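User: Teach me something about this protein's shape.
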Amino acid sequence: MWLRGRQQTWTRVVAASGLIVLVACGQTRSDRATPAGSTPTATTVAPTAAAPAPMPYQVKRGDTLTSVARFFGMSSQTLAAANQLDTQARLTEGQVLQIPPAPPAGVTVSPSDGISGNTFTFTVTGAKVGEAITFQIMGPGGRVFSGSPHTASNDGVVTATYISKGDDPGTYAVVASGDRGTSLRAEYRLLG
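Assistant: First, the predicted structure itself:
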């Protein structure tokens, strides 16, 4: 997201790993190049909330690594890794597992700007394992395109591509909707 600050300096806000990074480019207009010899500056702002902690779960009779992982919407590999277990480990009644927090859900579009004929890649992270995600693209003129569902992998990732042949310039919204409650939105621009 571009923010306009004091003295008409443009600042880029980038969220990464729970931190917000502000990058000032020192330009007074977005169509001018950064002056030779100048270097963009970056400031890191600490997150406002602490990262969620793992949740303890006491194993019940009949539980398996796979059944517990499925119940919490993650892969058995993720659960095993969080507890330093082999993926084939047998659980015992009363054993306490640490359930890692679900990664934050998000959708990204790459590239964020392009021209007609470009291929855009949509990537969802933090979906539930096995969740069916459908992507809808909404154009600036009200035109809507829906793709076929894609199934989330064991790490909650879904990727789809879209080729923008013949689309009008403007801002397009991408909505990723899942059959288990995931609902995410991102945008990209098609340049003229």
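Now, about its shape. The radius of gyration is 22 Å. Residues 37 and 167 are 39 Å apart (CA to CA). If you'd like, I can walk through any region in more detail.
User: That's plenty for now, thanks!
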